[in-house]
Amino acid sequence: MGFQDEMRQMFLRVAAGEIEPEEWEKWWNRNSFKLEETLNRGDRGRIMPTLWSANYYWMTKTQGGVAYYFHAQGRPVKTSGYYEGKAREEEIRERQRAMEVYHRKTAPARRPWEEYLERHPTEAITFDWKSLLGTPPGQKPAKVFGYKNARTTEQWKECGEELKLRLKENLQAKIAPAAKAYGMKKAGPKTFVREKNGLVSRIQFIGYFRGGGYEAMICYLCPIYAIQYGILGLPGHVCQGEYFQKMRNGWGVIQYGTVAVDAAMVESINGKFDDILTFLADGVLPEWQKIDSLETYFAKERRDYLKATEKGPNHPRTGRPMWNLDTGGKPDPWRADDYLFGVWNLLNGKEKEGYAHLEECVRHNSDYMETRLKEFPNACNDSRDAMAVMYRNAQLFLETKEIPDAQKRQNAIRETYEEVCRFMRYYHGLAKKTERS
Q1: pLDDT exceeds cutoff 90 at 335
Q2: For range 262-278, the mean pLDDT
Q3: When you count CB atoms within 10 A of the terminal residue's CB, does the N or C end of the chain come out lower?
Q4: Using alpha carbons only, what angle is made at residue 229 by residues 226 and 233, rounded to the nearest 5 degrees?
Q5: How confident is the model at residue 1 (pLDDT cuts 50, 70, 90)?
Q6: Which alpha helices (H) appear in 257-385, and where do they start and end?
């Protein structure tokens, strides 16, 4: 048998998924000179890319190159899914190993935080959220459509209404019970909030601005006086890890109302809400439950742990971090952290540090706010304008600096805190609209 016949036989075995990576690598290296003479540069690059290594991910690339080779010759072949399946298993194992290394690396920062939590225990929540997965109870049968993609205005309307029905079914059957189990109340058809010991937690689904479903989901925990940006958040593996990535992958299925919401689409919507529920109930909500006071929220042990978890391990396939929340020491663009820590310092009697933070927040945003208030004089009272609200709050606290008497100044700080919180309860959806001068 000549080399070209041997090569074709090997290629056919690769297409059928019968060659293991190590065997393929040995054969290719043993025949590299003959292959260079037989194959053109494009075929060689597709079948054996430069970065190729002996694993199943790269065998899928080789298989694709082989399929292209036969197709170009007018002899298309059927390919096996063996390598793709093994590559998925391989990636899961490698990701697990990478996460094990990550948890070992962050353990020195995690242990003090866990010890802090042992000294400050919170109420344990027992909630069988997994029973909510799958098809919502009493879900209406899927509608039969005579088309796949909406073309006319009437079809767009029909698809949008059906999508909203399926979103509502899942929201009520899955997200609402999880939120309720953690003491959250509805602040609207798509919003859940809770206030406890000076902290507010909020989950909100944002409607897609062109109609249709949900563009995004916002969830945050912060002091009532604060806004949801630039704040101390969750450990990286909770807020940006596997559950988050799975939730965000394919989000469009609950966003765009442009295709027929048939049986397959309904099943996909149910599955996406399973991903959202898992992200919340097995990650976000239990993590929030650990924090039941402002002291715990600002605890050094917690801040150190969050800092240690900002950057995730490298992805086994891309070599890039799985997530990276590290700002490289740069302050947040709104100086929301200056406002956050400035008020906290004032409440704890650290006036020098507190006023310095607030001055930086006000100074940084003053030019923007001057222009903003000319266009929208009431922006500081608009819950949709987070920066304007924060700027006005920072101003109010900063004004107390001018009070010379220490005791009166502390009283004014406390009164300002109560006044700001009163308005911010409206901002976060905890109370009805509140006006302020």
Answers
A1: yes
A2: 97
A3: C
A4: 90
A5: low
A6: 263-279, 285-289, 294-297, 300-308, 336-347, 351-375
Token representation of residue 346:
């004032």
Dist CA 284 CA 395 (whole Å): 32
Domain locations in the chain as residue ranges: 3-80, 128-292, 336-427
Q: Identify the H or E element spanning 44.
A: helix 41-47
User: Which pair of tokens denotes residue 414?
Assistant: 């406390």
Residues 142 and 262 sit within 8 Å (Cβ to Cβ): yes
Give the phi and the psi of residue 194 in degrees, each rounded to 5: -150, 140
How confident is the model at residue 185, as a pLDDT?
96
Residue type, 91: E
Task: Show the 3-state SS of 215-268.
Answer: EEEEEEEEECCCCCCCCCCCCHHHHCCHHHHHHHCCHHHHCCCCECCCHHHHHH
Instruction: State how far the alpha carbon of 45 is from the alpha carbons of 66, 77, 81, in Å.
Output: 11, 19, 22
Range 218-238 burial, b when 16+ CB lie within 10 A, else e: ebbbbbbbbbbbbbbbbbbbb
